[in-house]
Design brief:
Two copies of one chain form a homodimer. Chain A has two domains: 150 residues, Sandwich (Jelly Rolls); 339 residues, Glycosyltransferase, CATH 1.50.10. Helices cover 39% and strands 17% of the residues of chain A. Chain A contains 17 helices and 14 strands. In chain A, the strands form three sheets. In chain A, strands 1, 2, 3, 4, 5, 6, 7, 8 and 9 form a nine-stranded antiparallel sheet that branches. A three-stranded antiparallel sheet of chain A has the order 10-11-12. Chain A has a two-stranded antiparallel ribbon with strand order 13-14. In chain A, a hairpin with a 7-residue loop joins β2 and β3. In chain A, α7 runs parallel beside α10 and α10 packs antiparallel against α11. The radius of gyration of chain A is 26 Å and the shape is globular. The relative contact order of chain A is 0.12. At the A-B interface, β6 and β12 of A face β6 and β12 of B.
């Protein structure tokens, strides 16, 4: 026995040495747990509702400096005739489906005269907005893959023929060009359709009948945006990136709670993200479904998204009472808190520079000029409070005993070091930057009480060089801060002006990026690659329906 | 009863009036017969032999004025490394499969680092010859559909991924270009293969071991050409047009008889062409298999092809003894003879001008300068003799009693009106044109005896302005004329120089069009759209194997 024990001891020591040598490290949650979570995610894949959609009009795009991105569409009519008329003579024509659609595109060709003696080469360009079917894509100046742009070239070998493009597409407009055909026969496009899919299946209640037309329209466009992004996960955008990001999921889950109420989808996403966490238990910012579920290994740790996961889980529990899921995933939430103190100074202030230097990604907003320190400080407090609330509901407060202390320390640290009394504003970074992000998150974190928050927001509005939100994601939090500060009229005006601005510019769905003064703004150096149906922009649905007293007359 | 008879009579009269009014005309063979023929064609679809092929080398193309079409390939080696190396850094690389292949192309992508965060856009250009993967296709100047050119653009949505292109391709070289990818990951092409298909499945006997290397090579390239064109029909070219043409079928069937002996395929093609004849019983020059068997309705009547059908049927009977098929299709052969006299003058001379004026297509050869009158006169006599032979073998001579008289009249008419005694050459048309086509077909039609034929062919070779063959199809008949005239050495030299010329220029398969002095010659205004593996060019196989005493030492 002694001999065998000795053998076992050596085996153990050698195993540890070997695993260290080979770089093996421990799986924080364990493979069985992850497998179980993946299985639950898989068992909750929603069945997609499929609807066959057809074009409703033929249009041309016209350059117009008053139009969004200087292109507008104009009906040219004659859809019925189009199907019977030579496609050769109509190359470049644009089919308008009348709404934003996500799904697979099918077309049929038939001969008009002669016999197909050669293949036909067609190009289909799918656009969410008119500019996408107007501006040339090449030479491509963008920073993301050129392949995101939805132009597909198809060789049709025989006619009559019905062809379904493999790629799932997201669009309202389809430009059809004939790149090759034979002089010995002619043909028409006799049918075009899309098998549109969504996992947003439930009926939506109407807004109060007395709501303004604008609010109704904003709500509808928000619903369209959300339902288009609801596929087998909450996608960030059905055109691009078609991925599940924690930040987008947070806002989608909120909007979903007040509209389609597909909580099964939220549950699936929470499990999927958990199952695909880093080995050390911290969360990846996003995951992919295809070819099989996986995370973006090696991608930078996105701190604010990781800790917002806990708030999504708490909200999910509140909405569903599903304590089983909340208990299952509680270890994940708890683990995310372990990075709160990693770059926290003794003064209770988050050292953003150090975090960034160590390759953490602090997102907050698409805005290169933004100093993220104070916003992160706010998000950390906000997330700790949410986690504490979750622990309380699960009777697990004893497991996060440190949180109240940290909340207290970071809140007072913020007031002491990040609040400029003279300005009556939170500042961020060594240049004492004033931003909408900092004020919004400090208010959401409840570091200041509503009355002070109101003053801060008024001061912010008056502060000339305040860094404004770069897009809808941060605008959402700003609206919430306004509401939390009882500045309801301001919140309503912002929704009407910002999201309403997109509606007035013809949006069928809300855009990933929107700067009223720079319509060609793109984080990717080429605006057609922007996503024009983007999850994080859908939240007017949430505000309008959660706060009817503010938005519905 | 009277009443009802009267009704029936009126019904009959009205029906006839109505059918005339609506342009209905009688189906010469009747729908049941056609249906039966189609069924037999379908029951004889050969099962294709499938072979998985892989690239054997990486090459680049180099401009070289001494190379065919000024492009040659040069090995750059490193195929094994290629599969492990970033495709982004190798965009434009060319995979060499080492042989001409027809089938479906499959490729796999895998990541080298990072996670696929975006689709990839790839372009594959498939070339039968080096120039096709070297010269730009656009702006496309060709007269046939641009879609025949084999460049396919593919969006790959996720990686790892294995994708099979829908389109069947025909090529030796594949150029791979990366048109779009993400900076956040890299990938390699880990596999490329083709599921090559052919219905040429039987083993081929070796040539006599003492045959010259050149003859062996010509034979092999001919076999490759034939087997690549043998799919579910005898195609004219597997890249283009992939169609069953009577003219190509004739030469393929000959070569097949002396090589793969897939007589079932010949039978299928004979039935298919018959079943899809014009309503008046005359044959269309070509038929299509997809999407379902059909002819090129409305296409011009190609007289020389229609009457050559009979010779193919006779040869098929000779090779197989299949009298059932020959009897089945005899009505078709008999019907083709009914146009012999349509434009025949009382002098026994075919009025080609009148035929062309009435929209008949007289092909004979790709050569705009060729006057086709005398060649057609020869083809008509040749075909009548073949038909008569067929009738004799089927005991149906009584059904074509007119043929001997017509043969006699057209033969003497030819000698009297189309033969220039001073020149010792047949002339054609009002400009008394001297051509290889006229001499060849008159000799094949046996209008002159071998000794006179020899003189004619010598005179032809000496005649400065004789119109030469425009391509392999007519060269075939010229070679046969040389052999029939006992000018065997000349036949051998022609094979060695003309087809051997292609071999020396690197042909893996024989080309649709070949003029040693104009390598960019194309009937379609753009040489890359030429077919570089073309049925009618495969006949050295037939000559070398039918006449071993001439070609095999």
């Amino acid at each position: 026995m002694k001999h065998s024990f000795s053998n076992f001891k050596w085996f153990l020591i050698l195993s540890i040495l070997l695993s260290n040598f080979l770089g093996f490290s421990q799986d924080y949650y364990g493979p069985d747990e992850r497998r179980k979570w993946l299985d639950i995610a898989e068992n909750n894949i929603p069945s997609l509702k499929e609807t066959i959609k057809h074009p409703i009009d033929l249009v041309k795009t016209i350059k117009d400096t008053n139009a969004f991105q200087v292109y507008k569409t104009e009906s040219i009519g004659g859809l019925d005739d189009f199907y019977k008329t030579s496609l050769k003579t109509q190359s470049g024509i644009i089919l308008d489906f009348g709404e934003h659609i996500t799904g697979q595109f099918t077309f049929s060709l038939n001969t008009l005269f002669g016999v197909t003696d050669a293949p036909v080469r067609l190009k289909f360009t799918f656009g969410e907005v008119p500019s996408e079917v107007s501006v040339p894509f090449d030479p491509y100046p963008g920073g993301l893959s050129r392949a995101w742009l939805q132009d597909e070239i198809v060789t049709v070998m025989s006619i009559p023929s019905t062809i379904t493009l493999e790629r799932r597409l997201s669009f309202r407009y389809v430009k059809v060009e004939v790149l090759g055909s034979s002089p010995y026969f002619d043909f028409s496009l006799t049918k075009a359709s899309v098998k549109a899919t969504t996992s947003a299946t439930s009926e939506i209640t109407d807004l109060s009948a007395t709501s303004s037309e604008l609010i109704k329209k904003i709500d509808q466009v928000g619903l369209n945006t959300l339902s288009e992004c609801m596929q087998t996960v909450f996608e960030d955008g059905p055109k691009r990136d078609r991925r599940l990001w924690i930040g987008d999921l947070y806002l989608q889950a909120l909007a979903n709670m007040y509209s389609y109420e597909n909580h099964m989808l939220t549950k699936r996403c929470l499990y999927l993200i958990a199952a695909l966490a880093q080995e050390d238990g911290f969360l990846y910012s996003n995951v992919f479904e295809y070819p099989s579920p996986h995370a973006q290994e090696g991608s930078p740790f996105l701190f604010d998204y990781a800790i917002l996961y806990n708030v999504i889980l708490r909200d999910y529990l509140d909405a569903t009472g599903d304590t089983e899921t909340a208990n299952d995933l509680w270890p994940v939430a708890k683990r995310q808190m372990d990075h709160i103190t990693t770059y926290l100074g003794e003064d209770g202030v988050f050292n953003a520079d150090k975090a960034v230097k160590n390759k953490w990604w602090l997102f907050v907003d698409w805005n290169d000029q933004l100093d993220r320190q104070t916003a992160l400080q706010g998000i950390m407090i906000y997330s700790m409070k949410g986690t504490l609330d979750l622990a309380e509901k699960l009777n697990k407060k004893s497991e996060v005993k440190q949180l109240p202390k940290w909340i207290e320390s970071m809140s007072s640290g913020a007031l002491k070091h990040l609040y400029d009394k003279d300005l009556g504003l939170f500042i961020s970074g060594k240049d004492r930057q004033v931003s909408y992000a900092s004020q919004s998150w400090m208010i959401l974190a409840d570091v200041v009480k509503p009355k002070k928050a109101r003053n801060i927001l008024h001061n912010l509005q008056d502060y000339k060089n305040a860094i404004k939100p770069g897009g809808p994601y941060l605008y959402h939090y700003y609206v919430q801060a306004l509401i939390d500060s009882d500045l309801k009229e301001d919140a309503r005006e912002l929704i009407e002006n910002y999201w309403g601005g997109m509606v007035k510019k013809g949006a069928d769905t809300f855009w990933e990026v929107y700067d009223p003064n720079n319509e060609e703004l793109s984080p990717y150096q080429f605006y057609p690659v922007n996503s024009y149906c983007h999850a994080w922009s859908c939240t007017p649905v949430y505000f309008i329906r959660k706060y009817p007293e503010i938005f519905q007359n």
